[in-house]
Amino acid sequence: MKKLKRYQYERYAIFCQLAYPDAAEHYHRALQPFHQRKLVDKYGRMGVRILWTEKKKEVIVVFRGSLSFRDWLANLVFLPARINHFDQKFFVHWGFSRLLNQPMYSSTKTVDDALPLRELLEKVLEPLRQQGKRFTFTGHSSGGAVAVLMADYFERKHTKAVKRVVTFGQPAVGSRSWYKNYCLHRKTYRICCDLDIVTFMPPFPFYFWHVGKMLWLHDDQIYENTPTHERFLKSLHSWLLRPITYHYMRKYIRNKSLFDEH
Q1: pLDDT, tens digit (0-9, with 9 covering 90-100), for 178-195
Q2: Can you give the pLDDT at residue 247?
Q3: Using CA atoms, how far apart are residues 241 and 237, in angstroms rounded to an integer?
Q4: In sequence order, what are the beta bridge partners of 51?
Q5: Is 77 in contact with 95 (CB distance < 8 Å)?
Q6: Mind listing the pLDDT tens digit for each residue in 14-32?
Q7: Could you say which DSSP state residue 209 is in?
Q8: 140, 16 in Cβ contact below 8 A?
Q9: What is the domain range of residue 220?
Q10: 65: closest CA among 154, 171, 152, 151?
Q11: Does residue 56 sit within a domain?
Q12: Which GO terms describe its biological process (predicted)?
């Protein structure tokens, strides 16, 4: 598995932030070099943004996370649902399966042209695939969950079409069978930040399994594939000691950049 480079992490993180309507204005400069296509729901809210350039072979497919109260309710319906990825059958989180099949339409069409998200994405991505481009799927929260589902499906249909999968604050997606048969473990980076409670969801750790390589950002370090219980205990320990660690001189040195603007 290749390492995820800093500029790649920053780029995907900004694109995930830009999937939300409240993204800071200065982030929008990151979109300037790209052609883009948006997929929107029946309310006109963007759910997926597709970004590419003529010169580079990478196409970045960004999935928005939960936005409305209805989205969050669907996340809480973690009953297992059966899905078929060609010759494989899995049980996955019902709410994320629903998101992958929700009616969406392209920003260049009308709501009458709505298709299930997975079907619509295939149609939009196919011309780019025929140009020899490869695809990075990324998303935050439930958007990350949909990204791994879509990436697995797309890779099974088009071998070696997926370049990588990068998710932020993603909950677990499926059962043990899903974990065992997921075909992109070596290309998937699951990024967690400190004690992000969503990354521990759903609260059934021996039924719902995470996939890929976990990169945990904690106390100014990156930990790889830290077990869930160890991650929780380290976070709790850090929280309990935080009032003391704020007294350390390194904390004062770390904040030196604040004086550049003072």
Answers
A1: 999 999 999 999 998 887
A2: 54
A3: 6
A4: 36, 60
A5: yes
A6: 999 999 888 878 888 889 8
A7: B
A8: yes
A9: 6-226
A10: 171
A11: yes
A12: lipid metabolic process
Could you tell me if residue 240 is inside a domain?
Answer: no
Pairing outcome for strands 188-193 and 162-168: parallel
For the chain, the straight-line distance linking the first and the last C-alpha, in angstroms and rounded, comes to: 43
CATH number at residue 102: 3.40.50.1820
112, 38, 60, 120: CA torsion to nearest 10: 0
Give residue 262's pLDDT: 41
- Give, in degrees to the nearest 5, the angle at Cα 89 between 58 and 174: 70
DSSP state of 182: -
Q: Where are the alpha helices (DSSP H) in the chain?
A: 6-17, 69-76, 94-100, 117-130, 142-157, 176-181, 228-245, 249-254
Residue 257 forms part of a structural domain: no
Query: Which amino acid, 220?
Result: D
By C-alpha distance, which of 97, 105, 198 is closest to 150? Answer: 97
Instruction: Calculate the alpha carbon distances from 238 to 96, 133, 167, 194, 226 in Å.
Output: 32, 43, 24, 9, 15
Instruction: For residue range 139-162, list pLDDT tens digits in order.
Output: 999 999 999 999 999 999 999 999
pTM of the model: 0.87
